[in-house]
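Need residues for this backbone.
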């Protein structure tokens, strides 16, 4: 699906050979603007309980597809133009007819994209098939045991779909500040003109304790999805492990204050 000026498609940022990411620390956006967050993988994304790094959409994927298409800091597409373009393309007319959907329409296009996105699943890894190497097995013991990773990166998708502040440093980028301000204004954040830090999940409930929290990402297809974190601040998996080794806010909280033992869920 193309954007307003036909320069971008979903796949410009969600590239299949990079597990549907783009290899950039911070994503691009509609011509003339650039995004202030890292493009997340779409692996198993249909199964998430909430979407985007701040978890701001939690009802259905249709909203996510709509926002990706229409938002100025994504594809800036006018749905009416989209529908007309589809109607004028014999390939799409034929595809819609064959799918029993009649004439190309906005709703039909969004539901087709949604169904496609749901079909992007990750399975058959050594973890799933029981073919992990000896050192990977030792790593998993640490992951669900002493290191406590599985408290948040829980279950076969390796996420509990909840936001935490694990203390990732800001990635201030003047080029992207306009996009950031637009988003913050749209999210109803007070004093957005003076805002210098990404408040993350604050936009969900406007509670101070949610500020700086970001959704636990899946760890599926991880070797293809660098750079890491909502703002691409960590370039490699080595950097991620160093980061956790130094100890971060919620991480230390989980491990030492609550002394909560990570229990790997049965699945
Ligand atoms: C310009 C780059 C870009 C384009 C084009 C783009 N996306 Fe994204 N996508 C992103 C970024 C960046 C995020 C994270 C945004 C955030 O957290 O606020 C995202 C998030 C998502 C998510 C949520 C992932 C999650 O784990 O929460 C889905 C689903 C998604 N995009 C699907 C699409 C679809 C479908 C299209 C085409 C209609 C599309 N995207 C076009 C960059 C892009
Ligand atoms: C308190 C919950 C929590 C714990 C415990 C935790 N993580 Fe995370 N993890 C997160 C959150 C939240 C993010 C995303 C932060 C962001 O985007 O700024 C994240 C991000 C990551 C990423 C980057 C993924 C990506 O696609 O960007 C990796 C890799 C990762 N964690 C591995 C681990 C490992 C290994 C451990 C154990 C040493 C661990 N995590 C412990 C919550 C947690």
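Answer:
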């Amino acid at each position: 699906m193309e954007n307003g000026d036909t320069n971008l498609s979903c796949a410009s940022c969600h590239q299949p050979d990079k597990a549907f990411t783009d290899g950039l620390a911070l994503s691009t956006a509609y011509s003339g603007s650039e995004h202030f967050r890292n493009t997340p993988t779409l692996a198993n994304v249909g199964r998430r309980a909430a979407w985007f790094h701040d978890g701001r959409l939690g009802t259905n994927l249709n909203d996510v597809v709509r926002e990706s298409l229409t938002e100025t800091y994504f594809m800036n597409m006018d749905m009416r133009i989209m529908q007309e373009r589809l109607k004028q393309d014999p390939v799409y007319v034929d595809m819609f007819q064959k799918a029993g959907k009649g004439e190309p329409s906005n709703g039909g296009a969004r539901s087709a994209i949604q169904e496609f996105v749901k079909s992007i699943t990750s399975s058959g890894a050594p973890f799933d098939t029981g073919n992990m190497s000896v050192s990977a097995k030792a790593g998993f013991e640490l992951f669900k045991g002493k290191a406590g990773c599985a408290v948040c990166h829980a279950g076969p998708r390796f996420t509990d779909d909840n936001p935490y502040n694990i203390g990732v440093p800001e990635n201030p980028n003047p080029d992207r500040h306009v996009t950031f301000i637009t988003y913050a204004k749209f999210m109803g954040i007070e004093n957005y003109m003076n805002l210098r830090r990404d408040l993350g999940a604050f936009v969900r409930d406007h509670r101070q304790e949610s500020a700086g929290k970001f959704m636990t990402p899946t760890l599926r297809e991880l070797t293809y999805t660098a750079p890491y974190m909502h703002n691409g601040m960590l370039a490699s998996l080595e950097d991620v492990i160093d980061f956790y080794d130094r100890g971060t806010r919620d991480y230390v909280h989980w491990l030492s204050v609550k002394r909560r033992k990570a229990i790997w869920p049965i699945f």
